[in-house]
Amino acid sequence: MKAYSVLDVIVKNDSWVPAYMESVGDIVSKHGGVYLANSTHYEFLEGSGNQEAARVIIEWPSVDAGKAFMSDPAYLPHLKGRQAGTISNHFLIEGKA
């Protein structure tokens, strides 16, 4: 069953961004992930949230694939860089069959 990573990311220090952008797409693909959205261009239809956050949606072939990506040794240095330079919320949501 497919799963979806849904993130909101507020960048506080962008020193991690070049290395992240260069490498992480390949690591996502390695685990069967596909970026569906990665943008700061959106509008709130309900609620208030944080207007400066980027919104990211990644489709995974399964929950296990999303978790495998998060624990991939090739991703861990990028994860630490992103976590140090952002305020982020990441939800892994199981899709419907």
Write structural notes for this entry.
By secondary structure, the chain is an alpha+beta fold. It has three helices and four strands. The protein has helices spanning 17-30, 63-70, 76-85, and strands at residues 3-11, 34-39, 54-60, 86-94. The chain has a four-stranded antiparallel beta sheet with strand order 2-3-1-4. α1 (17-30) packs across α3. The radius of gyration is 13 Å and the shape is globular. The N and C termini lie close together (6 Å). The mean pLDDT is 95.
Percent strand: 25-35%
**Count of DSSP E strands?**
4
How would you describe the shape? globular
Distance between the termini: 6 Å
Mean pLDDT: 95
Q: What portion of residues is helical?
A: 25-40%
- Global Rg: 13 Å
Main sheet properties = 4 strands, antiparallel
Number of helices: 3
Order of strands across the main sheet: 2-3-1-4
- Kindly name the structural category: alpha+beta
The H/E string reads EHEEHHE
